[in-house]
Protein backbone atom coordinates (compact mmCIF):
# COMPACT_ATOMS: atom_id res chain seq x y z
CA UNK A 1 0.00 0.00 0.00
CA UNK A 2 1.50 3.37 -1.06
CA UNK A 3 1.47 6.00 1.71
CA UNK A 4 3.49 8.94 0.42
CA UNK A 5 3.69 10.34 -3.09
CA UNK A 6 5.90 8.45 -5.48
CA UNK A 7 7.02 9.93 -8.77
CA UNK A 8 7.33 7.55 -11.69
CA UNK A 9 8.59 8.49 -15.14
CA UNK A 10 8.57 5.23 -17.08
CA UNK A 11 5.66 3.18 -18.40
CA UNK A 12 7.31 -0.05 -17.17
CA UNK A 13 7.55 1.23 -13.57
CA UNK A 14 3.99 2.52 -13.74
CA UNK A 15 2.76 -0.91 -14.85
CA UNK A 16 4.43 -2.54 -11.82
CA UNK A 17 2.63 -0.20 -9.41
CA UNK A 18 -0.66 -0.77 -11.23
CA UNK A 19 -0.30 -4.58 -11.15
CA UNK A 20 0.32 -4.45 -7.40
CA UNK A 21 -2.70 -2.21 -6.86
CA UNK A 22 -4.91 -4.47 -9.00
CA UNK A 23 -3.70 -7.55 -7.11
CA UNK A 24 -4.62 -5.81 -3.85
CA UNK A 25 -8.10 -5.09 -5.27
CA UNK A 26 -7.63 -1.32 -5.14
CA UNK A 27 -9.90 1.07 -7.04
CA UNK A 28 -7.68 3.20 -9.25
CA UNK A 29 -8.43 6.81 -10.21
CA UNK A 30 -6.54 8.96 -12.70
CA UNK A 31 -6.36 12.75 -12.88
CA UNK A 32 -4.72 13.61 -16.22
CA UNK A 33 -3.09 17.07 -16.31
CA UNK A 34 -0.49 19.15 -18.08
CA UNK A 35 0.84 20.41 -14.74
CA UNK A 36 1.39 23.93 -13.36
CA UNK A 37 -1.19 22.92 -10.81
CA UNK A 38 -3.88 25.11 -9.30
CA UNK A 39 -7.03 24.61 -7.19
CA UNK A 40 -8.93 23.37 -10.26
CA UNK A 41 -6.58 20.40 -10.59
CA UNK A 42 -6.59 19.82 -6.84
CA UNK A 43 -10.40 19.65 -6.81
CA UNK A 44 -10.12 16.71 -9.22
CA UNK A 45 -7.70 15.00 -6.81
CA UNK A 46 -10.17 15.57 -3.97
CA UNK A 47 -12.95 13.94 -6.00
CA UNK A 48 -10.61 11.05 -6.86
CA UNK A 49 -9.56 10.64 -3.21
CA UNK A 50 -13.23 10.21 -2.24
CA UNK A 51 -13.85 7.40 -4.74
CA UNK A 52 -10.51 5.62 -5.13
CA UNK A 53 -7.86 3.76 -3.12
CA UNK A 54 -5.00 4.68 -5.46
CA UNK A 55 -4.94 8.18 -6.95
CA UNK A 56 -2.69 8.63 -9.97
CA UNK A 57 -2.01 12.07 -11.40
CA UNK A 58 -0.25 12.41 -14.73
CA UNK A 59 1.67 15.54 -15.64
CA UNK A 60 2.51 15.55 -19.32
CA UNK A 61 2.51 18.50 -21.69
CA UNK A 62 1.34 16.57 -24.71
CA UNK A 63 2.86 17.85 -27.96
CA UNK A 64 0.24 16.00 -30.04
CA UNK A 65 -2.56 18.33 -28.94
CA UNK A 66 -0.76 21.61 -29.73
CA UNK A 67 -0.98 23.19 -33.18
CA UNK A 68 2.21 24.42 -34.92
CA UNK A 69 1.57 28.05 -33.86
CA UNK A 70 0.41 27.25 -30.31
CA UNK A 71 2.21 27.53 -26.98
CA UNK A 72 3.76 24.06 -26.50
CA UNK A 73 7.24 25.48 -25.82
CA UNK A 74 6.00 28.34 -23.61
CA UNK A 75 3.44 26.29 -21.66
CA UNK A 76 4.16 26.98 -17.94
CA UNK A 77 6.02 24.22 -16.14
CA UNK A 78 7.21 23.83 -12.51
CA UNK A 79 7.69 20.22 -11.49
CA UNK A 80 9.02 20.86 -8.00
CA UNK A 81 6.04 23.00 -7.00
CA UNK A 82 3.64 20.56 -8.70
CA UNK A 83 5.11 17.62 -6.77
CA UNK A 84 4.54 19.41 -3.46
CA UNK A 85 0.97 20.41 -4.33
CA UNK A 86 0.14 16.93 -5.60
CA UNK A 87 1.57 15.37 -2.45
CA UNK A 88 -0.40 17.63 -0.07
CA UNK A 89 -3.58 17.05 -2.07
CA UNK A 90 -3.26 13.30 -1.58
CA UNK A 91 -1.90 11.98 -4.87
CA UNK A 92 -0.28 8.55 -4.46
CA UNK A 93 1.48 8.18 -7.78
CA UNK A 94 2.68 11.03 -9.95
CA UNK A 95 3.30 9.92 -13.53
CA UNK A 96 5.69 12.30 -15.29
CA UNK A 97 6.86 10.68 -18.52
CA UNK A 98 9.07 12.43 -21.08
CA UNK A 99 7.85 12.90 -24.64
CA UNK A 100 10.17 10.12 -25.86
CA UNK A 101 8.84 7.78 -23.15
CA UNK A 102 5.25 8.37 -24.28
CA UNK A 103 5.74 8.40 -28.03
CA UNK A 104 7.71 6.00 -30.13
CA UNK A 105 9.22 7.81 -33.12
CA UNK A 106 7.11 8.31 -35.11
CA UNK A 107 3.72 7.54 -33.57
CA UNK A 108 1.57 5.99 -36.31
CA UNK A 109 -1.67 5.60 -34.39
CA UNK A 110 -4.26 8.32 -34.00
CA UNK A 111 -7.55 8.20 -32.10
CA UNK A 112 -10.14 10.49 -33.61
CA UNK A 113 -13.64 10.96 -32.24
CA UNK A 114 -16.20 12.28 -34.77
CA UNK A 115 -19.07 14.80 -34.39
CA UNK A 116 -18.48 16.14 -30.86
CA UNK A 117 -15.07 17.33 -32.06
CA UNK A 118 -16.52 19.39 -34.94
CA UNK A 119 -17.56 22.67 -33.25
CA UNK A 120 -15.94 24.95 -30.61
CA UNK A 121 -12.28 24.18 -29.83
CA UNK A 122 -12.30 21.35 -32.39
CA UNK A 123 -12.95 23.94 -35.10
CA UNK A 124 -10.47 26.54 -33.80
CA UNK A 125 -7.72 24.06 -32.95
CA UNK A 126 -7.58 21.52 -35.81
CA UNK A 127 -6.13 18.19 -34.63
CA UNK A 128 -6.31 19.21 -30.96
CA UNK A 129 -8.83 16.58 -29.89
CA UNK A 130 -7.08 13.81 -31.82
CA UNK A 131 -4.04 14.63 -29.70
CA UNK A 132 -6.15 14.63 -26.53
CA UNK A 133 -7.97 11.36 -27.23
CA UNK A 134 -4.78 9.62 -28.32
CA UNK A 135 -2.86 10.58 -25.16
CA UNK A 136 -5.83 9.92 -22.86
CA UNK A 137 -6.32 6.46 -24.42
CA UNK A 138 -2.62 5.79 -23.88
CA UNK A 139 -2.89 6.91 -20.24
CA UNK A 140 -5.94 4.65 -19.81
CA UNK A 141 -3.93 1.70 -21.19
CA UNK A 142 -1.02 2.38 -18.85
CA UNK A 143 -2.97 3.14 -15.66
CA UNK A 144 -6.09 1.00 -16.27
CA UNK A 145 -8.16 3.28 -14.05
CA UNK A 146 -11.63 2.48 -12.75
CA UNK A 147 -12.38 6.23 -12.68
CA UNK A 148 -11.00 9.20 -14.60
CA UNK A 149 -11.55 12.77 -13.39
CA UNK A 150 -11.86 15.69 -15.82
CA UNK A 151 -12.85 19.34 -15.27
CA UNK A 152 -15.94 20.82 -16.90
CA UNK A 153 -13.90 23.90 -17.76
CA UNK A 154 -12.84 21.77 -20.72
CA UNK A 155 -16.42 20.62 -21.32
CA UNK A 156 -15.86 19.55 -24.92
CA UNK A 157 -12.91 17.44 -23.75
CA UNK A 158 -15.22 15.69 -21.26
CA UNK A 159 -17.67 14.94 -24.10
CA UNK A 160 -14.87 13.63 -26.35
CA UNK A 161 -13.24 11.42 -23.71
CA UNK A 162 -16.60 10.02 -22.54
CA UNK A 163 -17.56 9.16 -26.12
CA UNK A 164 -14.16 7.55 -26.78
CA UNK A 165 -14.35 5.40 -23.64
CA UNK A 166 -17.88 4.32 -24.58
CA UNK A 167 -17.10 3.58 -28.25
CA UNK A 168 -13.93 1.62 -27.46
CA UNK A 169 -15.40 -0.20 -24.42
CA UNK A 170 -12.74 1.13 -22.07
CA UNK A 171 -13.73 -0.06 -18.58
CA UNK A 172 -13.42 3.37 -17.00
CA UNK A 173 -16.03 5.73 -15.63
CA UNK A 174 -15.38 9.31 -16.68
CA UNK A 175 -16.29 11.69 -13.84
CA UNK A 176 -16.91 15.34 -14.79
CA UNK A 177 -16.03 17.82 -12.03
CA UNK A 178 -17.29 21.42 -11.65
CA UNK A 179 -15.32 24.51 -12.71
CA UNK A 180 -13.27 26.07 -9.90
CA UNK A 181 -13.08 29.86 -10.06
CA UNK A 182 -11.01 32.62 -8.47
CA UNK A 183 -12.96 34.72 -5.93
CA UNK A 184 -13.69 37.31 -8.66
CA UNK A 185 -15.12 34.68 -11.03
CA UNK A 186 -12.19 34.01 -13.40
CA UNK A 187 -12.07 30.28 -14.19
CA UNK A 188 -8.77 28.90 -12.93
CA UNK A 189 -6.37 27.94 -15.71
CA UNK A 190 -2.64 27.39 -15.93
CA UNK A 191 -2.65 29.89 -18.80
CA UNK A 192 -3.94 32.71 -16.53
CA UNK A 193 -0.29 33.41 -15.62
CA UNK A 194 0.23 34.76 -19.15
CA UNK A 195 -2.30 37.59 -18.54
CA UNK A 196 -1.17 41.17 -17.84
CA UNK A 197 -3.00 42.97 -15.00
CA UNK A 198 -5.20 44.84 -17.49
CA UNK A 199 -5.94 41.69 -19.54
CA UNK A 200 -6.87 39.84 -16.37
CA UNK A 201 -9.30 42.60 -15.32
CA UNK A 202 -10.95 42.61 -18.74
CA UNK A 203 -11.08 38.78 -18.79
CA UNK A 204 -13.61 38.94 -15.94
CA UNK A 205 -16.16 39.71 -18.68
CA UNK A 206 -16.22 35.96 -19.48
CA UNK A 207 -17.63 34.74 -16.18
CA UNK A 208 -19.76 37.90 -15.88
CA UNK A 209 -21.36 37.30 -19.28
CA UNK A 210 -22.08 33.66 -18.37
CA UNK A 211 -23.78 34.75 -15.14
CA UNK A 212 -25.85 37.28 -17.10
CA UNK A 213 -26.63 34.61 -19.69
CA UNK A 214 -28.09 32.33 -17.01
CA UNK A 215 -30.44 35.15 -15.97
CA UNK A 216 -31.43 36.01 -19.59
CA UNK A 217 -32.23 32.34 -20.22
CA UNK A 218 -34.40 32.19 -17.09
CA UNK A 219 -36.22 35.27 -18.43
CA UNK A 220 -36.98 33.46 -21.70
CA UNK A 221 -34.31 34.74 -24.14
CA UNK A 222 -33.60 32.44 -27.12
CA UNK A 223 -30.14 30.93 -27.82
CA UNK A 224 -29.58 33.41 -30.68
CA UNK A 225 -30.49 36.38 -28.46
CA UNK A 226 -28.26 35.20 -25.63
CA UNK A 227 -25.36 34.67 -28.05
CA UNK A 228 -25.70 38.19 -29.49
CA UNK A 229 -25.87 39.79 -26.06
CA UNK A 230 -22.74 37.92 -24.89
CA UNK A 231 -20.85 38.94 -28.04
CA UNK A 232 -21.86 42.57 -27.45
CA UNK A 233 -20.75 42.44 -23.82
CA UNK A 234 -17.35 40.90 -24.62
CA UNK A 235 -16.81 43.28 -27.56
CA UNK A 236 -16.93 46.22 -25.16
CA UNK A 237 -13.55 45.07 -23.82
CA UNK A 238 -10.84 46.60 -26.02
CA UNK A 239 -8.32 43.81 -25.32
CA UNK A 240 -10.75 40.97 -26.09
CA UNK A 241 -10.80 39.17 -29.41
CA UNK A 242 -13.57 36.56 -29.70
CA UNK A 243 -12.69 33.14 -31.05
CA UNK A 244 -16.20 31.72 -30.54
CA UNK A 245 -19.39 32.18 -28.53
CA UNK A 246 -21.73 29.23 -29.09
CA UNK A 247 -24.81 27.76 -27.47
CA UNK A 248 -25.21 24.05 -28.21
CA UNK A 249 -26.87 20.96 -26.78
CA UNK A 250 -24.72 19.12 -24.22
CA UNK A 251 -23.02 16.65 -24.40
CA UNK A 252 -23.95 16.09 -28.08
CA UNK A 253 -22.77 19.58 -29.05
CA UNK A 254 -25.34 19.97 -31.79
CA UNK A 255 -27.11 23.15 -32.91
CA UNK A 256 -29.79 24.48 -30.58
CA UNK A 257 -32.61 26.64 -32.00
CA UNK A 258 -34.62 26.79 -28.74
CA UNK A 259 -34.06 25.92 -25.08
CA UNK A 260 -36.28 22.95 -24.20
CA UNK A 261 -37.40 21.78 -20.77
CA UNK A 262 -35.19 19.02 -19.40
CA UNK A 263 -32.57 19.29 -22.18
CA UNK A 264 -29.04 20.23 -21.19
CA UNK A 265 -27.18 22.96 -23.06
CA UNK A 266 -23.79 24.62 -22.99
CA UNK A 267 -22.93 28.28 -23.41
CA UNK A 268 -19.28 28.03 -24.47
CA UNK A 269 -16.77 30.85 -24.96
CA UNK A 270 -13.21 31.11 -26.23
CA UNK A 271 -11.71 34.58 -26.19
CA UNK A 272 -8.18 35.87 -26.66
CA UNK A 273 -6.71 38.56 -24.41
CA UNK A 274 -3.42 39.50 -26.02
CA UNK A 275 -1.70 36.20 -26.76
CA UNK A 276 -3.68 34.27 -24.15
CA UNK A 277 -6.67 32.23 -25.27
CA UNK A 278 -9.15 31.59 -22.43
CA UNK A 279 -12.18 29.30 -22.39
CA UNK A 280 -15.16 29.24 -20.06
CA UNK A 281 -18.66 27.81 -20.13
CA UNK A 282 -21.99 27.35 -18.44
CA UNK A 283 -23.76 24.00 -18.58
CA UNK A 284 -27.39 23.94 -17.46
CA UNK A 285 -30.75 22.36 -17.99
CA UNK A 286 -33.74 24.68 -18.47
N1 LIG B 1 -10.78 25.79 -13.14
C1 LIG B 1 -10.87 24.48 -13.24
N2 LIG B 1 -11.85 23.82 -12.60
C2 LIG B 1 -11.97 22.47 -12.71
N3 LIG B 1 -11.15 21.71 -13.46
C3 LIG B 1 -10.16 22.32 -14.12
C4 LIG B 1 -9.97 23.73 -14.05
N4 LIG B 1 -8.90 24.05 -14.82
C5 LIG B 1 -8.44 22.91 -15.34
N5 LIG B 1 -9.19 21.86 -14.93
C6 LIG B 1 -9.08 20.46 -15.32
O1 LIG B 1 -7.80 19.96 -15.02
C7 LIG B 1 -7.44 18.97 -15.98
C8 LIG B 1 -6.08 19.29 -16.52
O2 LIG B 1 -6.17 20.50 -17.23
P1 LIG B 1 -4.91 21.35 -17.65
O3 LIG B 1 -3.69 20.78 -17.04
O4 LIG B 1 -4.95 21.62 -19.11
O5 LIG B 1 -5.18 22.70 -16.86
P2 LIG B 1 -5.69 24.06 -17.32
O6 LIG B 1 -5.58 24.98 -16.19
O7 LIG B 1 -6.99 23.83 -18.03
O8 LIG B 1 -4.64 24.53 -18.34
P3 LIG B 1 -4.88 25.34 -19.63
O9 LIG B 1 -6.33 25.66 -19.77
O10 LIG B 1 -4.06 26.52 -19.44
O11 LIG B 1 -4.38 24.34 -20.64
C9 LIG B 1 -8.52 18.99 -17.06
O12 LIG B 1 -9.44 17.96 -16.81
C10 LIG B 1 -9.15 20.34 -16.84
O13 LIG B 1 -10.50 20.42 -17.27
C1 LIG C 1 -6.50 15.73 -20.58
C2 LIG C 1 -5.14 16.29 -20.89
C3 LIG C 1 -4.20 16.09 -19.70
C4 LIG C 1 -4.55 15.48 -22.06
O1 LIG C 1 -3.29 15.94 -22.40
C5 LIG C 1 -5.21 17.78 -21.28
O2 LIG C 1 -5.96 17.97 -22.43
C6 LIG C 1 -5.68 18.66 -20.16
O3 LIG C 1 -4.82 19.00 -19.35
O4 LIG C 1 -6.89 19.00 -20.10
N1 LIG D 1 -6.95 21.91 -20.88
C1 LIG D 1 -6.82 21.72 -22.32
C2 LIG D 1 -5.44 21.52 -22.71
C3 LIG D 1 -5.02 22.38 -23.84
O1 LIG D 1 -5.43 23.54 -23.92
O2 LIG D 1 -4.26 21.91 -24.71
Automatic annotation (TrEMBL):
User: Which InterPro entries does the annotation name?
Assistant: Cyt_trans-like (IPR004821), Pantoate_ligase (IPR003721), Pantoate_ligase_C (IPR042176), Rossmann-like_a/b/a_fold (IPR014729)
The alphabetized UniProt keywords are: ATP-binding, Cytoplasm, Ligase, Nucleotide-binding, Pantothenate biosynthesis
Give the species.
Brevibacillus invocatus
**Mainly localized where?**
cytoplasm
Could you share any additional remarks the record makes about this protein? The reaction proceeds by a bi uni uni bi ping pong mechanism.
Residues noted as binding beta-alanine in the record, renumbered to the chain: 65
The family assignment reads: Belongs to the pantothenate synthetase family.
Taxonomically, the superkingdom here is Bacteria
Give the gene symbol.
Answer: panC
* Residues engaged in binding ATP: 34-41, 151-154, 180, 188-191
Under what name is this protein listed?
Answer: Pantothenate synthetase
Which EC class, in a word? ligase
What Gene Ontology molecular function terms does this protein carry?
Answer: ATP binding; pantoate-beta-alanine ligase activity
One GO biological process term is: pantothenate biosynthetic process
What do we know about how this protein assembles, alone or with others? Answer: Homodimer.
Q: Where are the transmembrane segments?
A: none
Amino acid sequence: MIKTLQQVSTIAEMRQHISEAKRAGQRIGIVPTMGYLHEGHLSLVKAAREKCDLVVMSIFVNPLQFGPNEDFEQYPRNMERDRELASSAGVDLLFTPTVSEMYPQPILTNISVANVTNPLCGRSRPGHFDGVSTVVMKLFQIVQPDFAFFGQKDAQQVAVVTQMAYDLSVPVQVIPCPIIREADGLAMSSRNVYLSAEERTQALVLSRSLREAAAWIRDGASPAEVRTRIINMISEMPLASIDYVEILSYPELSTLEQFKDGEAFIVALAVRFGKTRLIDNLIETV
